[in-house]
Request: fold
Amino acid sequence: MAQIELAGIDRSFTVGDSRVHALSALSLAIEAGEYVAIMGPSGSGKSTLLNLLGLLDRPDAGHYRLEGRDVTTLSADEQAAVRRSRIGFVFQSFHLVPRLSAAENIALPLTLAGIAPPERERRVARALRDFGLEERARHRPDELSGGQRQRVAIARATIMQPALLLADEPTGNLDRHTGEEVTQLLEALNAAGTTLIVVTHDPAMGRRARRQLMMEDGRLKSDSRRQAGPADESHTAPGSAP
Amino acid sequence: MSPADTLRFAGRAAFAYPLRTALMVLAMAIGVAAVVVLTALGDGARRYVVGEFASLGANLVIVLPGRNETGGVNAGSFITNTPRDLTLADASALLRAPLVSRIAPLSVGNSEIAVGGRLRETMVLGTTSDYIDVRHLALAEGRFLPQESLGHASAVAVIGGTLRRELFGNEAAVGRMIRVGDTRLRVVGVMAASGQGLGFNTDELVIVPVATAQAMFNTNTLFRIMVEVRGRDALVPAQRQMEDILRSRREGELDVTLITQDAVLGTFDRILGALTLAVAGIAAISLAVAGILVMNVMLVAVTQRTGEIGLLKALGATGGDIRRAFLVEAALLSLAGALAGYGLGQLGAWGIRLAYPVLPAWPPDWAVAAGLGTALFTGLLFGVLPARRAARLDPVQALAKR
Ligand SMILES: Nc1ncnc2c1ncn2[C@@H]1O[C@H](COP(=O)(O)OP(=O)(O)OP(=O)(O)O)[C@@H](O)[C@H]1O
Ligand SMILES: [Mg+2]
Reply:
């Protein structure tokens, strides 16, 4: 049984009088621990697919089985619980809460999950260490560089030790060098067992993934796999084992 | 999210926008302060008036000439358009009522009082020896008016404390002669300080025998008759006995008014109580306005923080978590406003008491509770809509907004 199974997924939006088919008849299976890059032209449905995988959106038709459970029929609160414990998100624009410090931003998922403060502090301290953010723990997002912000966001996304990490253009707002660092960080987390699904416009980054999905007009144009490559050797970045 | 974490999160959010928070707290504070100050004023006025009349004593009936009741048109009104005056004969007749224990007829006027070279305008009260007991007053020096028949005009006077100080200074007052108008009187006593009561300030009064006052002002009428009855329970039957006596003395027509402390107090209590309520109602409107402001501010907050709400949902927050966070934020802002307003209101009431020492301008407990309660309630009530809007936001669209 694959970790993720999509069958006959449709998702369309009504814009004015016309309907836009963001995803149509999409079927897909992803195993636990895979490293998948989703690529394709703008408007091809990449973000829509990622939002569906992250239970932020519901399909109009079709089924989504996550770890053997049909999650399309879950209530909103049940879906929130799945997001809380099984899924981590990394966004292009970081999405840090501006009034909270780096440490408090990282602690947010633990707070939402109702984990007791002492345990929370212990885990946040470890994450700060793992992601090289100890010096920045008390800084607010506007006092951090782009790379540091994305590291805080990744620390936050992984603090609950999710089985699935979803990243929508995680390096889109970063310069080349910082983007490379962040990519290595994500790959290290994947190497430690987390399923990693990255939406990217960058062909170089896409090539590093072991599996590439090419989207076009809401459909899967190609699904290619690559055997061991250079990405598998770049486990030098710091990261915590889930 | 645990309640403590929700509270902390909402508190941080409230503090993140200091200007917005300060303005909203101010609006709420003004509403609560208005309730506190205005009810303090209204209730202070009520207590002041009630206090004035409460000093009368519970088993007192005041007889005054004229029928000043509502719907006061009766047969007599057509025969005589001016009511018959009250006289000393009426007063002594009232003593025949079995339930009447004491009477004090009152005759008042203004005159000049002179001692040596010192001259001063003052109020003269003509009454009897029982006045001091009927009014529960006390003497500071000497004796009160002598026990004598109503018609006897002895040349004695009892003066108030202020007059004594102004006319005699440190010298002895008892035994000295004073001139009131054209009449020479001997001071036999000085009243203890008692302040305002029933329209007279006893401290500035010259009290003389009633016949002396009537001679001085060349009249045979009375201003009022104060009647003390034998106990509180006797109030109603005594009133009936007095009415019978007075009616028989004026050809079957009762053209006098009998008032009791209970009736006066009841009336004033009702009128001023209603006034306080009305004032509280007006102040409550300002609280409602503050509530609408809370709603507006929270709606803006939801719009400002749309991206954050989307993020929280992505991190696994339920709609309930987000609704509670926003509701608690509204409640915190209202609470801060209510407390600030309470402080401001108490300060205002204190200022009023300072400016008008006679007015006991303390906000009543019920008004304070109602003001604080309404503030919190409106804050929460008007916070519900924004909180629900936040909770219902679609996470994808919320995240797309920056
Ligand atoms: N909320 C929405 N309302 C209307 N149309 C939408 C909405 N979300 C997505 N779409 C449409 O669905 C299609 C797919 O959008 P999606 O955001 O998935 O594209 P994408 O592949 O992520 O593009 P990009 O690379 O530019 O981010 C587009 O045509 C878009 O206009
Ligand atoms: Mg996209």
Notes: The pocket of magnesium ion (ligand 2) is lined by residues A 46-47 (CB under 6 Å). The domain at 4-225 of chain A is CATH 3.40.50.300 (Rossmann fold).
